[in-house]
């Protein structure tokens, strides 16, 4: 029944999946460059401390801080602090995804909601979450609830903005296709809507994740909730400078770690996206 | 001899449906006084004024019209993707209110109608998911890919293919759905001339192999006359049917032999003149 005599198009390029070795090379180079930069900064810091350019009373040598960090890695307190900071940030992020997705759907799909909320959104966006710490303390005290609420508030906007943008960019041809082939809501949602929004969601989430860590540390630092930030403040008061800097480094490493996790997620989830696939026709 | 006027007055012996049988007897598709306006009040854009035509089972009908004649609007209304302002589309005896199950659409913009996160095989399989079990789907995907000349390419992603191959994949998706009518909206407008010729012949072969009725919208007069049993010429917006021209050229068609026939040139020129008139009429109006 099928015309099997139809020949493939002459000379049509049949490109294989993007060459992994090439990507690995590029990634290895990036990693080496990054590591070299970190080593360079630490070396410079060490040299400046040793030569006395930096006052070691204010700025202990890099080696002192790294030794302290190594010691802390063996203590339960350190991991407890790390977990307090990280778990609040992650809980906040989960709420951001939940609230952001629902809000983005409403704003992106219903004109009335968009018109009635954009002033409020634009008003709330630039309010630094730090400014709300006094309010949070008043309502909930230095508790995880206070932290998570402020984290959610601060980290919501990048995710929400990206999601609304993503919904606006929806590919109408694909939706027409879905409708004409009667795919139904389940296939349309899982095979078209979710993959379409995924690049926007991941970009938004990546920015929101950094903010979540920052707000988490700051609420601990200023609000006195348990975590890395609180220990930084306590160490500072007790003049335990190597401990303070070790914790500051930890906060930085936490940020790097979250970024790496999202990068690792993007590769398998967005292999089809022009930003990831490397070659196009 | 050129038969014009309403389709019902058309001499039936001018088309032979050799080997073409369909699951539906009678008129496959009836478009009745279709009218579509966008907006309301003073800003009303009148796109379709009054479009009426029929498509018989097994027929290959091309709709041509000057640019801006609402070809895509017409096709979307027929496909059940948008409601007309008035008039109706009757498909296999039933008024179209939503996309019918026995109708498939091949869109012009293949790069956006194919999903880049799925392999070509998965793209072709997707519309079958609500219809057939897994083994049946696998068989049908294989069949459809072979019939468009993409055998063994199912594991590629659309973006690893040329434009022509992507549109072949989109055609395979339409065919695999096993529609009674295949609607094609300027499917070859975005591919190069060489590929276009290949794809035209591919569509003719597929139509023969699958006994599918085809409604093909194009702005290309040569393409319309080469492919069609009948060409429906649209006026400029607000659009109505200007002419209904039976293409009594022998089949199978051949890119060289058919286009060398004096009759081909005659029909082509007739369509060309009608489109030119529609254009000048439209420009006087607006």
UniProtKB/TrEMBL annotation, chain A:
Regions that span the bilayer: 31-48, 60-80, 86-111, 123-142, 148-167, 179-198, 204-223, 244-265
Localization per record: Cell membrane
SUPFAM superfamilies reported in the protein's UniProt record: MetI-like (SSF161098)
Record has Cell membrane as a keyword: yes
GO terms of biological process kind: transmembrane transport
Residues annotated as domain ABC transmembrane type-1: 82-266
InterPro entries cross-referenced by the UniProt entry: MetI-like, MetI-like_sf
Pfam families listed in its UniProt record: BPD_transp_1 (PF00528)
Membrane topology note: Multi-pass membrane protein
Family designation: Belongs to the binding-protein-dependent transport system permease family.
Name this protein carries in UniProt: Nitrate ABC transporter permease
Species: Kocuria dechangensis
Gene name for this UniProt entry: ssuC
From TrEMBL, chain B:
Domain ABC transporter residues, every copy: 29-261
Coiled coil residues, start to end: none
GO molecular function, one term: ATP hydrolysis activity
Organism: Kocuria dechangensis
Keyword terms of this UniProt record: ATP-binding, Nucleotide-binding, Transport
Domain of life per record: Bacteria
Gene that produces this protein: ssuB
Pfam families: ABC_tran
InterPro entries: AAA+_ATPase (IPR003593), ABC_transporter-like_ATP-bd (IPR003439), ABC_transporter-like_CS (IPR017871), ABC_transporter_ATP-bind (IPR050166), P-loop_NTPase (IPR027417)
Protein name: ABC transporter
Entry keyword annotation includes ATP-binding: yes
Nucleotide-binding as UniProt keyword: yes
